[in-house]
Amino acid sequence: MGAPDPTASPDEFVTESQANRHSLLSEFWQWLKHNKKWWLLPILIALALLGAVVILGGSALGPFIYPLL
Protein backbone atom coordinates (compact mmCIF):
# COMPACT_ATOMS: atom_id res chain seq x y z
CA MET A 1 0.00 0.00 0.00
CA GLY A 2 1.61 3.24 -1.09
CA ALA A 3 0.88 6.88 -0.50
CA PRO A 4 -2.75 7.95 -0.81
CA ASP A 5 -3.83 9.24 -4.18
CA PRO A 6 -4.93 12.89 -3.84
CA THR A 7 -7.20 12.51 -6.89
CA ALA A 8 -9.06 9.47 -5.48
CA SER A 9 -12.79 9.77 -5.17
CA PRO A 10 -14.54 9.45 -1.77
CA ASP A 11 -16.22 6.26 -3.04
CA GLU A 12 -12.83 4.65 -3.54
CA PHE A 13 -11.88 5.58 0.02
CA VAL A 14 -15.04 3.95 1.37
CA THR A 15 -14.40 0.82 -0.71
CA GLU A 16 -10.84 0.51 0.61
CA SER A 17 -11.94 1.08 4.21
CA GLN A 18 -14.50 -1.74 3.96
CA ALA A 19 -12.07 -4.24 2.42
CA ASN A 20 -11.19 -7.39 4.34
CA ARG A 21 -8.21 -6.98 6.64
CA HIS A 22 -5.67 -9.73 7.14
CA SER A 23 -4.17 -10.72 10.45
CA LEU A 24 -0.58 -9.92 11.28
CA LEU A 25 0.45 -13.55 10.88
CA SER A 26 -1.32 -13.79 7.53
CA GLU A 27 0.40 -10.67 6.23
CA PHE A 28 3.77 -11.90 7.51
CA TRP A 29 3.26 -15.26 5.80
CA GLN A 30 2.41 -13.51 2.52
CA TRP A 31 5.51 -11.34 2.91
CA LEU A 32 7.69 -14.42 3.48
CA LYS A 33 6.29 -16.09 0.36
CA HIS A 34 6.61 -12.99 -1.79
CA ASN A 35 10.16 -12.07 -0.72
CA LYS A 36 11.38 -15.66 -0.30
CA LYS A 37 12.80 -15.04 3.17
CA TRP A 38 12.37 -18.63 4.36
CA TRP A 39 15.56 -18.45 6.43
CA LEU A 40 13.70 -16.21 8.90
CA LEU A 41 11.32 -19.01 9.96
CA PRO A 42 13.80 -21.07 12.05
CA ILE A 43 15.01 -17.91 13.78
CA LEU A 44 11.48 -16.82 14.66
CA ILE A 45 10.51 -20.31 15.83
CA ALA A 46 13.60 -20.49 18.06
CA LEU A 47 12.84 -17.05 19.52
CA ALA A 48 9.22 -18.05 20.18
CA LEU A 49 10.32 -21.25 21.94
CA LEU A 50 12.89 -19.37 24.01
CA GLY A 51 10.26 -16.79 24.95
CA ALA A 52 7.87 -19.56 25.99
CA VAL A 53 10.55 -21.15 28.20
CA VAL A 54 11.32 -17.80 29.84
CA ILE A 55 7.66 -17.01 30.48
CA LEU A 56 6.74 -20.48 31.69
CA GLY A 57 9.98 -20.79 33.67
CA GLY A 58 8.94 -17.90 35.87
CA SER A 59 5.55 -19.43 36.53
CA ALA A 60 4.45 -22.40 38.59
CA LEU A 61 5.31 -24.65 35.62
CA GLY A 62 9.04 -23.87 35.93
CA PRO A 63 10.00 -26.93 38.00
CA PHE A 64 8.34 -29.17 35.39
CA ILE A 65 10.02 -27.51 32.38
CA TYR A 66 13.66 -27.30 33.46
CA PRO A 67 14.21 -31.04 34.05
CA LEU A 68 13.32 -31.50 30.36
CA LEU A 69 16.02 -29.10 29.21
Could you characterize what this model shows?
With 69 residues, the chain is an all-alpha fold. The relative contact order is 0.06. The termini are far apart. The model has no long low-confidence stretch (mean pLDDT 80). The radius of gyration is 21 Å and the shape is elongated. It is built from four helices and no strands. It has helices spanning 10-17, 24-35, 40-57, 62-65.
pLDDT < 50 runs, ≥5 residues: none
How much of the residues is beta strand, in percent? under 5%
**Average pLDDT figure:** 80
Largest sheet geometry: none
**Helix count?**
4
Question: Distance between termini?
Answer: 44 Å
SSE series: HHHH
Helix content: 55-70%
Structural class from helices and strands?
mainly alpha
Task: Give the key terms.
69 residues, mainly alpha
Compact overview of the structure:
The protein has 4 helices and no strands. With 69 residues, it is an all-alpha fold.
SSE order and pairing:
Blueprint: H1 10-17, H2 24-35, H3 40-57, H4 62-65
